[in-house]
Amino acid sequence: MSAIGENPPTNKSITTWVQEVADLTQPDNIFWCDGSPEEKANLTELAVETGVLRPLNQDKWPGCYYHRSNPNDVARVENLTFICTEQEEDAGPTNNWMDPVAMRAKLEGILKGCMKGRTMYVVPYLMGPPGSPMSRVGVEITDSVYVVLSMRIMARMGRPALEHLGDGDNFNRGIHSMLDINPERRYIAHFPQENAIISVGSNYGGNVLLGKKCLALRLASFWGRKEGWMAEHMLILGLESPEGKKTYVAAAFPSACGKTNFAMLIPPERFKGWKVWTVGDDIAWMSPGTDGRLWAINPEAGYFGVVPGTNNHSNPNAMKSLARDTVFTNVAITDDGDVWWEGKDNPPPAKLTDWQGKPWKLGSGTKAAHPNSRFTAPMENNPMLAPEVNDPQGVPISAIIFGGRRSTTIPLVYQSFNWLHGVYVGATVGSETTAAATGAVGQIRRDPMAMLPFCGYNMGDYFVHWIRMRKLLKTPPRIFHVNWFRKDDEGNFLWPGFGENMRVLKWIVDRCEGRGHANETSLGWVPGPGDFDLEGLPGFTEEKLAQAQHFSDDEWRREVLQHDELFFKLYGHLPKEIIFQRELLVARL
Ligand code: OXD
Ligand code: MN
User: Fold this and answer.
1) Is residue 471 situated within a structural domain?
2) How much is the pLDDT for 265?
């Protein structure tokens, strides 16, 4: 076995562990990644030579490449994702569980000799800004060059990680092998007590870019509970007023419900002078500051965004973010290296090759791009990237917004009465399922705080942790719920969404700053007629807003019964405060 790539790091804990994994997996080579531009160029060349990446038309798409994944491997696999705690109860009823010793034995059996004939890449990465006490180091061992090139976009790879770690041993040990991309041998296993992850049999981002869902959500949520902070499936944005005052909000929506769009919102003409700055589009790590406020960092360095539906109306900043140095996965392509997807600005070109490599034309009756096709783009490309994204102390959060994809029942926006009620609102988020995970699309499932697939421990204990966080905060963020996806009887969206969501955001920020007026209702505080700025939204009348805001007690009584479905499951660990909040809601209805 020869070592190629950069020299091994001086950290003995890393080299010893890597040797152990190499002894098990028996790669032909070990490649120590340093994150340098030369390394990127060499690995990209290799990926192109081996057919892993295909260069796009470099005049139109500078630095961009195309990757097609195995059609059996296009989304997160929640049924094959495991939390391996010593006690099953600690993983809770919403996670798959397996005994850590048994799972390790099983996976080590699978990993034995699995890298023969392959190169083993060692990827040190830092989640969070360099120098931040909140940042964490991981080392991912992988046999996929696609993973290496994606990790260097999604995280701070190489030197910043090694510098942050120093001689220490406190890093996440992640092992990934594609094996033969076989769903029969696909496992995404987390070992919270050992700070380790093993992912086999997949090459899809959410399963294999271990810094993202595995470390920054499942394991980090586990650490956060122990250490008094929060790892959440939330975007972070800063709203800057024309006077230059910035207010930061974090928002949790289930996968593929528009977090990236909201994080990159461009205010409409009416809000001239207002700016939205993106801190993060998917994950927030939030910790109480010495001032009693909740401070947040984005642990990531790039965007792994859903492509279909992204265009210059829905998200101009995402279009700019993916315009260069981006890896596109499973979109459709043309012979001359252009890309296309459903919901792009232009109609499809006459001749197209779909995400599975088959000829495609309009009327084929199939999607040209996979509904969960993705762009992996560096955050630096975003013209509205908040400079604070690199601030080690993060940004102070004034509001937390929950939301789901709901065609009925849930109004456009309401504010919880207080933190505890807000925890109930977050705990009962429901959403229609999307293509981001394998399984049926469009069914309502309870997705508390949008964390159902990402909470690394018992969800009942997670609610307890949320409730306890209140005690660590002098000025807790205000908590809101939004629903951009409500439809009328004809199936039309009631709210225009996208940039117009600025109107909702403005009301939210006004509420946080003691300005915005609201009416008390049984759900919480809602904007009344005239509380909402509708100027410059032709055709959208106060009546329409009332329709989007309307809720019926009957529908809500049914909704509360559906809340119970998840609560029954969690009963043994459900905090009494949640039950009391439910009773209060029922009483108000
Ligand atoms: C994601 C997801 O990719 O939530 O961010 O699935
Ligand atoms: Mn996500």
Assistant:
1) yes
2) 97
Ligand 1 contact, 458 CB (< 6 A): no
For the chain, counts of helices (H) and of strands (E) = 16, 32
Residues 467 and 559 in one domain: yes
What's the CA dihedral at 218, 220, 224, 230 to 10 degrees?
-80
Which CATH number goes with the domain that contains 339? 2.170.8.10
Q: Could you tell me if 404 and 509 lie in one domain?
A: yes
Q: Which atom of ligand 1 is nearest to the CA of 304?
A: 3
Residues 132 and 104 placed together within one structural domain of the fold: yes
Per-residue pLDDT tens digits for 199-233: 999 999 999 999 999 999 999 999 999 999 999 99
Q: Is the CB of 76 under 6 A from ligand 1?
A: yes
Q: Are residues 480 and 445 in the same domain?
A: yes
Q: CB neighbours of 322 closer than 8 A, spacing ≥ 6?
A: 64, 305, 307, 310, 328, 375, 377, 381
559, 409 in Cβ contact below 8 A?
Answer: yes
Q: Would you say residue 486 lies in a domain?
A: yes
Instruction: Read off the pLDDT of each residue in 288-294 and give the average, rounded to a whole number.
Output: 98
Residue 496 has pLDDT above 90, yes or no: yes
Clarify whether residues 88 and 196 are in a common domain: yes
H-type helices in 252-411, by residue range?
259-263, 316-321
Q: Is the CB of 150 under 6 A from ligand 1?
A: no
**pLDDT one-digit tens code per residue, 84-113:** 999 999 999 999 999 999 999 999 999 999
Please report whether residue 57 resides in a domain: no
Ligand nearest to the CA of 205: 1
Total domains in the chain come to 3
Q: Is 288 in the pocket of ligand 1 (CB under 6 A)?
A: no
User: Is the pTM value of this prediction over 0.90?
Assistant: yes
Residue 247 parent element (H or E): strand 246-252
3-class DSSP state of 518: coil
Q: Is residue 537, in this structure, part of any structural domain at all?
A: yes
Query: Amino acid letter at 52?
Result: V
Of 336, 352, 381, the one marking the end of a domain is: 381
Domain match, 37 and 131 both? yes
Shared domain check, 287 and 147? no
Q: Tell me how far apart the alpha carbons of residues 74 and 183 are, in angstroms, rounded to a whole number.
A: 11
Which of 316, 348, 381 represents a domain boundary (last residue)? 381
Top pLDDT among 524 and 440 is at: 524
Residues 6+ apart with CB under 8 A from 408: 486, 487, 555
CATH at 40? 3.40.449.10
Average of per-residue pLDDT across 309-314? 95
CA–centroid distance, residue 62 to ligand 1 (Å): 26
| Residues 505, 239 contacting (CB under 8 angstroms) | yes
Question: Degrees (nearest 5) of the Cα angle 357, 149, 12?
Answer: 145
Closest CA to 239 of 225, 254, 228, 249: 249
- Shared domain for 223 and 236, answered yes or no, is no
Q: How far is the CA of 281 from the centre of ligand 1 (A)?
A: 10
Cβ of residue 436 lying under 6 Å from some atom of ligand 1: yes
- Is pLDDT above 90 for 539? no
Query: Which residue lies with its CA nearest to atom 2 of ligand 1?
Result: 255
**Residue of minimum CA distance from atom 1 in ligand 1:** 255
Domain that holds residue 354: 303-381
Is residue 41 within 8 Å of residue 53, measured between CB atoms?
no
